[in-house]
Structures are given as structure tokens and as C-alpha cells.
Amino acid sequence: MVFMKTATTRWCWRKDLAEFRGLTNAERSGFLLVLEWFENFRLRHHLDANESGAKEFWRRDVLREDRPREPWQLEQWADAIRWYLDWLSACSEAGADHRSLAERVRTAVQSAGGRRGLARRTKQIYGLWAARYANFAGGERKVMEVDTATHFLTSVVEEEDCAYSTQKQALNALAFFFKHVCGIEDPVFGVKMRKTDARVPVVLSKPETHRVIGQLESSSDRYGLAARLQYGAGLRLSELVRLRIKDVDVERSMLTVRQGKGDKDRVTVIPKVLREELARQIERARALWQKDREAGLAGVYLPGALARKFRKAPESFDWFWLFPARQTSIDPECRVRRRHHLHGTVYNSAIKRAVAAAGIEKRVTSHALRHSFATHLLEGGADLKIIQDLLGHDSITTTEIYLHVATGANGLGVVSPLDESLDVRD
Question: Rounded CA gap, 245 and 323, in Å?
Fold first, then answer.
């Protein structure tokens, strides 16, 4: 195992902070708070432990416009970050490894995932679960014991009240860790998963949907078009932001979703009312693509096998993003600067702001637009099997959940007895 085989001296900033004599207990508690915050941010965003990562943390999380900070807080937090950077320099001079057990486990899992050809998102999720497990285990020997993993999975099932799919995700991540990192061929976890019932989806009415989209269009043309396409084509968030130019057939009003959930391709519909606007969006994307080519930037990201097979494809316009990010960034996989697609978190935040501005009192995320697409089709008389194909569901049972939220004869078709009594009186 990677973090067990190396004989490098390991330093722990938490231990050194606890033993550092230049701080009062109150100051030490404040330093611990902000450094834990920074570490979680850094690991979540795949940033290195260095000055650049600290600046990104300060810009994105500390100096948030929606979170005013007191001067004394900023001063204390800046002192904590300076202490941490000095500690990193001391680690480097001593040739010590500063990474925590959780970070080393996560790195090992993601490296193994890369060798096994796992999808990027799968590698990230497995790495995050492995890091959580390492924090639970607390030591290098304990983390390699199947019994420790059983205790961890039991706590996830019994104490966290999470969905069955989340429980399975944790189980699969640890099975991968033990098999491909620890070399244990067939780990047996003595834990029983707890089945959970399917949740009724959040659905917007047609007027609510148009109000949300209207709010988005008033603040950003890009978010407005993305929301209308997600609603009009029934796309998942990841499918929407990863659309490439080659998959948008404006003339035939067809959209091809590549490597959707379950690594499956499917075809869905492009609303005719969006054809002209999509054509303009393609030209806006072309301008950014041309700018990147003139700047000599690396092409867009392609999965490993495709990148090896089509070596020129990343730089071609066909493979460019339909909704490219406004700014370039460093790819965490290969450490090169390139243009990524619109970030899902940024888009989701815009949706939530639009929902609040529209005065809608529902727990709405971007996925509600996909639910609304299916529900409104069902209410309009579309066949359930057609909706299943458009959504890319494996089983029609999954699609049948929309029968519970659809209204009218094509939904549950139930009339409240109170309404019937009122009809009689009328």
C-alpha cells in the first residue's frame, strides 16, 4: 500500500499546533478552526497544500460577499494561514511528508482508479469516501483492517439516515480500496444495507418553471438558456454542463447525451423554440475556442481512452463545450491550463437565487427542472415508455414515480371528495 510502503518521515500539523508554545489556548483553538476549514476546502477542491491553494481558499471562502467578516477574524485567520505555510516550509526543508492519513488514502484510491479506468467522477467519490473512512479509522494499521471498515459502514447505515444508494456507494468505495489498494482480493463486510423508500420528486408547475427561467434570463443569458435546455430536454445537471458542440444537432432538433448515468448514450429532444438561440450560443462558444487556440492553451478534457485514440480531438471545435467556463483553470488531473465547462455548482447556485427571487417556497435544485420535464410530459399525455427513453432510465419503475406527482387524467386521476361535494352544490 502506498502510504505504508514509504519510509518518509511524516509530520502532522494538528500535533505540532497542539505542541506549539507561541500561542494561547484561545489562539490555538482559533487556528485549529480555520486550518480545519482550509484543509476541508483544499481536499474538496483538489488543491495542493501551498500558498496558491491558500490564496484560492481566501478568495473563494473567506472573502465571500454573502458572509461579512469581522476585522479581528480576518487578522486571526491570516495569522493561522501564515503559521501553516511556515509549517509547510519546515516540512519541505526536513524532507517530511505533510499529508494526513486521509489525504494519502484518497490519493492512493484515485491513483488506483486511474489505472483501472474509472470515470473521473467515480474516482473523486471513491476518494472522498476513502478519506472519510481513514479519518474514522485514525491510524495506518486500523485503516487496513476489514473489521474497521465494517464498523464504519455500520455507522453510515445506522447513524446517518442516508439513502440506500449512498450506503451502496460507501460500500463500493471501500471494496475498491481494499481490493485495489490494500491487495485484499475479496473483503467481506459484515454489514446489512438498509433499504429506503423512493422520495417523491420536487416538481414545479409550468407557471413556476417560467418564473424561475425568467429570473435567470434577467440576470444572465447563459444561465437562462442552460435552464431552458435542461427543462426542455430533461437533462441531468452533469449531462447539461458536459454537452459538446458535436452532440447538438440544431437542424434536426436532436440532442445526444454521451456517457450519461450508467455510462450510457441516449438521444433526447431539442425544443424548437431554442434552435436559434442555441445556434447563437454555438457561435459564442466558437469565439472562446478561437481565443484559446490563439493563446496556445491545451484542448478541452477528454476521457483517457478517447484522448489516446483521438489525439487532435481536444483542440477541435467539435469537441468543445456548448457552455464553456468564462475563465480558464488548472486541470487537477494533469496540471495543465485549459478551459473547463460551466461549473455545476455555479449553475445550481444561480437556480437557487432565481427560485428565491421568484418567491417559490420549495426546495428546488436544478434537478427539479428534469423532474418537471417528465411530469409535464406525462400530464400532456405522453406515453410513459417514451418518457423513460428520453430520461435514460433503466427501468420503467423509476419513471413511474412521476405518476405520483402528475395531476389530471394522465397522472393519478384522483378528484378530492371535497371538490366533488362542491361540484354537487354548484
Answer: 9
Catalytic residue among 222, 341, 370, 371: 370
Average pLDDT per 10 consecutive residues for the chain, totaling 426 residues: 56 89 90 92 83 91 86 93 94 87 90 84 90 90 92 91 89 94 89 80 93 86 90 95 95 90 88 93 95 92 78 91 91 82 92 93 93 92 92 90 76 61 54
Q: Is 46 a catalytic residue?
A: no
Residue 261 annotated to the active site: yes
Q: Is 326 a catalytic residue?
A: no
In a domain, 425, yes or no: no
402 is catalytic: yes
Judge residue 162's burial from the number of C-beta atoms within 10 Å of its C-beta, 0-12 exposed, 13-18 middle, 19 or more buried: middle
- Enclosing domain of residue 128: 103-180
Pick the catalytic residue from 236, 244, 339, 376.
236
- Give, for 267, the enclosing helix (H) or strand (E): strand 266-269
Selecting among 104, 132, 371, 393, the annotated active-site residue is 393
- Grid coordinates representing 356 are 428565491
The total number of structural domains in the chain stands at: 3
